[in-house]
Amino acid sequence: MPGFGDPGARILLLGLAPAAHGGNRTGRVFTGDRSGDWLFAALHRAGLANQPDSTRTDDGLRLHDAYVTAAVRCAPPQNKPTPAERDECQPFLVSELALLERLRVIVALGGFAYQAAWRALAAAGVRLPSPRPRFAHGLEVMLDRVTIVGCYHPSQQNTFTGRLTEPMLDDALARVRELADGPVT
């Protein structure tokens, strides 16, 4: 399943995989599931989406300066993608990164997406620091021309437990917008 959004986006939001009863059912990542409900509402509040929800591919959702995709392109068993699936799908992510010529910020929604971002950037020839900083919510890693920002995934496991709250997600997206608007390094 390909990503979607603004082809001129400076912000890429990278998730894990299409949810079996969300993106896999609707044909668009984060569409029609509770994680997407959280994500699209936050993108709308941040001025990156024209509406706060997405239930199907023809619902009129448009992203502004943002592009949403997943590390794994099909719904994995138990909604838990494996490193092997991530690696098999990596060329698709590398291609999307190359097409997003104005990309300034990658928001890694969870540790799995963070690992996928690093691997895809390495495959694309981006010079990466070693050792890799450990994933954390609010982590910022500035690289040549792109910054990776860590954000907890808006999964029910994180939102129901309060590990990720609406203010936390809103703050993360506000910071992402600042980074996208900042000077090119």
Could you characterize the architecture of this molecule?
The protein is α/β, with parallel strands linked by helices and 185 residues long. It has one domain (4-181): Uracil-DNA Glycosylase, subunit E. Helices cover 37% and strands 14% of the residues. The chain contains 6 helices and 6 strands; from the N terminus they run ββααβαβαββαα. The chain has helices at residues 23-26, 34-45, 83-99, 111-123, 156-161, 166-181, and strands spanning 4-5, 11-15, 66-70, 105-109, 140-142, 147-151. Strands 1-3-2-4-6-5 form a 6-stranded mixed β-sheet. α2 packs across α6 and α3 (83-99) crosses α4. The longest helix has 17 residues, at 83-99. 45% of the residues are buried. The mean pLDDT is 88.
Q: Quick recap of the structure?
A:
The protein has 185 residues and is α/β, with parallel strands linked by helices. The chain contains 6 helices and 6 strands; from the N terminus they run ββααβαβαββαα. Strands 1-3-2-4-6-5 form a 6-stranded mixed beta sheet.
